[in-house]
Amino acid sequence: MKTALTIAGSDSGGGAGIQADLKTFAAHSVYGMSVITAITAQNTVEVRSVQNIDEQIIQDQIEAVFDDLKVDAVKIGMLSSPSIVTTVAETLAKYQPNHIVLDPVMVSKGGHRLLAEDAISALKEELMPLADIITPNIPEAEILTEQKILNELDMKSACISFKKLGVKSVLLKGGHLSTDPNDLFYDGENFYWVKGKRVHTKNTHGTGCTLSSAIAANLAKGNTLLTSVQLAKAYIEVAIEHSLDLGNGHGPTNHFYELYKRAHLMNQ
Ligand SMILES: Nc1ncnc2c1ncn2[C@@H]1O[C@H](COP(=O)(O)OP(=O)(O)O)[C@@H](O)[C@H]1O
Ligand SMILES: Cc1ncc(COP(=O)(O)OP(=O)(O)O)c(N)n1
């Protein structure tokens, strides 16, 4: 069985973070493993508090996985602090995994910081160059490239700035623009629009986590980067279309819709 490892924060509400990543791996028939970087007390409305995990325990988790199990792809999400960024970068550099997908998570939908401001330079310098692909949303890309992104032309220019920062490839997500959610994939040479149709729902908690872990799952299965991005985009669109109206805020996406449909389990 193909395998994937997520290095990310825990979301007690189950819609984002480690929980979303493991559900996504399972939905792709990929064996999921996890390294927890921080615990968030979170639901569909808000993040109430965050407890970072000790750096030594984070290093131990990564080593425990790599020293025993094969890892076909790695997805990185919430890293919280500068020292966690450095620990993850240094420990992964020892193992040189085949595929690294970095979602540069910064702020939750409810506006809670998930990456300290003083961790941004470590993320840029130590981790971004290690990743095969980074998957920023528009606000994250604006901070990382220090430029405004107001339209699809600005998205292209931001991708070129990422290349100058030493990034190998980028999927710049267009979900935060008011147009259709078209994402731009740049492999350092060519641009590919990965187009989507906007689903009008408030239930979009964890969309970024789910998309990046679907890319990792598809890479683990041996797909190219471009195909992995295209398959992941199709997966997230269905997951949003059939999202779950749970909680009082932004409900989670439906990670297992296709599986439930095939098993005739919806609405039971
Ligand atoms: N309402 C929506 N309908 C369809 N696709 C969406 C919608 N919102 C976001 N997406 C897509 O979901 C993925 C995650 O994007 P986004 O929500 O921008 O990330 P993040 O959760 O990191 O802010 C992208 O492929 C984006 O285009
Ligand atoms: C623990 C944890 N990790 C990441 C996020 C952010 O996830 P994202 O997919 O960007 O979803 P929203 O926060 O936009 O709903 C998170 N909230 N918690």
UniProtKB/TrEMBL annotation:
Which residues does the UniProt record annotate as the domain Pyridoxamine kinase/Phosphomethylpyrimidine kinase? 11-254
Q: By its UniProt entry, which CDD domains does this protein fall under? A: HMPP_kinase
What is this enzyme's catalytic activity, as reactions? 4-amino-5-hydroxymethyl-2-methylpyrimidine + ATP = 4-amino-2-methyl-5-(phosphooxymethyl)pyrimidine + ADP + H(+); 4-amino-2-methyl-5-(phosphooxymethyl)pyrimidine + ATP = 4-amino-2-methyl-5-(diphosphooxymethyl)pyrimidine + ADP
This protein's pathway reads: Cofactor biosynthesis; thiamine diphosphate biosynthesis; 4-amino-2-methyl-5-diphosphomethylpyrimidine from 5-amino-1-(5-phospho-D-ribosyl)imidazole: step 3/3; Cofactor biosynthesis; thiamine diphosphate biosynthesis; 4-amino-2-methyl-5-diphosphomethylpyrimidine from 5-amino-1-(5-phospho-D-ribosyl)imidazole: step 2/3
Query: Keyword set for this entry?
Result: Kinase, Thiamine biosynthesis, Transferase
Q: What class of enzyme is it?
A: transferase
- What Enzyme Commission number(s) does the record list for this chain? 2.7.1.49, 2.7.4.7
Which Pfam families does the record match to this protein? Phos_pyr_kin
Q: Which InterPro entries match?
A: HMP/HMP-P_kinase_dom, PM/HMP-P_kinase-1, Ribokinase-like
A GO molecular function held by the record: phosphomethylpyrimidine kinase activity
| Record-linked PANTHER family | HYDROXYMETHYLPYRIMIDINE_PHOSPHOMETHYLPYRIMIDINE KINASE THI20-RELATED, PHOSPHOMETHYLPYRIMIDINE KINASE
Q: Which family does it belong to?
A: Belongs to the ThiD family.
Name under which the protein is recorded: Hydroxymethylpyrimidine/phosphomethylpyrimidine kinase
Q: Per UniProt, what is the name of the gene that codes for the protein in this document?
A: thiD
